[in-house]
Amino acid sequence: PSVPRHTNRLINEKSPYLLQHAHNPVDWYPWGQEAFDKAKTENKLIFLSVGYSTCHWCHVMEEESFKSKEIGDIMNEHFICIKVDREERPDVDKVYMTFVQATSGGGGWPMSVWLTPDLKPFAGGTYFPPEDGVHRVGFRTVLLRIAEQWKENKDALLESSQRILEALRHTSEIRVQGQESPPPPKEVMGTCFQQLSRSYDEDYGGFSKSPKFPTPVNLNFLFMYWALHRTTPEGARALQMALHTLKMMAQGGIHDHIGQGFHRYSTDQHWHVPHFEKMLYDQGQLAVVYSRAFQISGDEFFADVVRDILLYVSRDLSDQAGGFYSAEDADSYPTTTSREKREGAFCVWAAEELRALLPDPVKGATEGTTLGDVFMHHYGVEEAGNVDPTKDPHQELTGKNVLIARHSPELTAARFGLEPGQLSALLQECRQRLSSARAQRPRPHLDTKMLAAWNGLMISGFAQAGAALAEQGYVSRAAQAAAFLRTHLFDPDSGRLLRSCYRGKDNSVEQSAVPIQGFLEDYVFVIQALFDLYEASLEQGWLEWALHLQRMQDKLFWDPKGFAYFSTEAGDPSLLLRLKDDQDGAEPTPNSVAVTNLLRAACYSGQMDWVEKAGRILAAFSERLQKIPIALPEMVRATAVFHHTLKQVVICGDPQGEDTKEMLHCVRSVFSPNKVLMVADGDSAGFLYHQLPFLASLERKDGKATAYICSNFTCSLPVTSVQELRGMLSP
C-alpha cells in the first residue's frame, strides 16, 4: 500500500469505523470537548457524520465525498467536522437520529447533521451524492448553502435550532400519565397478534413484502402467544406463522449456506438476495429463537440451524480472549487483484465456477449426473445468474448466484434417483468444497470492536442453545464470554459496565484512553445473559453479578418522576436529550427486556420492589402498548410474563446426580416461557439460600431429586416423576 497523503486525528482512535476515515483529507475530530471548544472559539458550525464500519452507504459516501480533496477543503474551511461510530456511541446517534427522522420523515446511515456550536441540530439527512443530480441536491451544494446561511442569517438559524430542540423534547417524552397502571394483557396480546397476523406473508413468512428483516422480537412474541393459547385456532396460527418464517429464512439466501450464520436482511420478498453484512446481534437473537423452535417442535431442522449459527460465531466472530466481535462487512474484493470492492463478492457464485468445482459423476444417480447438477438444482443456480436485476441496482451481482434451497431434500433426491440420506451426504461434500474455494477469496472487513450489549445477546444465544440442545460446550463458551466481560468490560472499583473494548496489536484486548461508560442497553442485555447463563450452568456467581448490575442500572438510569429507564445516564452536557427508546427494532428496546429482567431478579432475590418497578415500566408505555403493540412485541411478551407471574421451578438434589440431571434436562427441553429455574443443592451457606430463606424448607422426597413449582415463594406439592414435572411446566 502507498503511503497515505493525509492523516487526521482519528488515527489515535480505537474504533474500526473511525480508523477507516483516518486518512481522509477532512480534518475529522472524534466526538469530544476538543471539537466542541474549537467550534465555539472559531464560531463555526459543526458537521456531524455518524455511521458504522460495515455500512455499505457509509463506504460509498466516503469514496465519493470524504476522500475528495476539493470537498474536504470546503468542509475544513467552513465547519468543525466530527465522526461518530454509532455502535460505540448509540447515545449521540439516537439524539440526532430523532431529529433527522422528525424533520425528514426517514433516517439511516450514514447520518449527516449540521449543528450550531452549542450542538443543537438545524439541518440533516442521510447519504448525499457528491454533486447535484436530477432528483437530489449534492453534498458540495448543501455544504456551501449552509455555510452561506450561517454567514447571512446566523440569528435565525440559532433561533430555529432552539425551537427544534424544544419540540423534540416534548414529542420524545415517555412518562406515566397520572395514576396509570400496567395495560390489560389480554387486550394488548390480542391486538399485537392481530396486527402481526394482518402483516404476515402467507407464502414466504415474515411480516412485510420487501425488504424483509429477521425480527426475532416478533417470533418470540408469537411463541409466547402460542404457549398461552395453544388449544385455540389463534394459538395454532401464531405457531405456524413463527415456524414457517424460520423455515423460509433458513432455506433462503439470507442464510449463508456455505459459511454459516445469517446476513442482515433480505432485499426481496423471498428471503433470497440479502444485504450481505453479518451482525453479532442477529446471530445471538436468532440462536435463541431457533433453539425455542426446536424445544417446541422437536424438529432437528431447527437444532441444525442453531448449530450452524454458533459454528459461524465461534469460528469467525470470536476473539481468542473470549469476547465476540461486532460484524462482518457486506463488501469485499472479488479477487486478490481487484481494485474495487463489491457487495456480496465473498458469498456469490457463477454457474461455471460451480461446475468446475463439482465435476464428479454421482454413483447411483441417473446417467451422467454430476455433483454440480445435483447441487445447482437444489440451490436454484442458473447459468445466467439467479439475481433479479431490480434487486441489484449497481449491477454488482450480474451473472452471479445467491444460493437458496429451492427444493425439499426429498424432491431433489427423487429428481436424480437418490436416497435422501445419500443426498444429504452429497450436499455436505459439495458445501465443504465450496467453503475451501471461498477461503481463497479476499475476506470482507471484520469489525473487531467488542460491545457489552451485543456480547450479552450472544451469551444468551450460546447459553439458551446449550440448555435446549443439551450441549455443554455451548454453555462453556457462554461462560468464557461472560468471564471476558467481567475482565474487560466491567470496572470493579465503580461497579459499572463499560461499553466497548477492541482487538489491539498482537491480538491483545485494548481499551480507549477514556473508556466509554455502559449505556442502559449494555446493562439490560448483560443482565439477561447472566440469568440465562445461570439457568444453563447453575453457577451462582453469575446470579450474584446479575443482581449487582440490576441495582446499578436502577441507580444510573431510572426515571423516578416519569417511570421506566432512560437510555443514558444524567450529567453529560454534550447530550441534549435523555431519551427512552419506544420501538423494538433489530434489537429489542432495553425497557422491554428490563421488565422481564426485573421479574427474574425478584424471583432470585425475594426483592418484591423489583416487581413494582416492572409494572411501572409497563404503565409508562401503556398508551403505546394499547395503540400500536406491534411496535413493542417484546414488551407485549413481558406484559404477559408480568400478569401470569413467573413460576419458580426449584429442583432439590445433587447437581451431579443422575436423577437431578434428568429433571434438569426435562425443564430445559420444554418451552416454558414463564418460569425461572434454580437448584437447591442443600448448601445452606450458598448465595441462593441467603437470598431466599424459603429454600431451606424444601427437601428431597424419599432421597430422590425432587421438583417444586413455586409462585411468589409458595410451593406446590413435591414431584419426583419427570413425566409429572413435564405436565406441570406447561403454562
TrEMBL record:
Residues 7-168 form the Spermatogenesis-associated protein 20-like TRX domain. GO terms for biological process: carbohydrate metabolic process. SUPFAM superfamilies: Six-hairpin glycosidases, Thioredoxin-like. It comes from the Eukaryota. Signal peptide: none annotated. This is SPT20 protein. It comes from Picathartes gymnocephalus. The gene is Spata20.
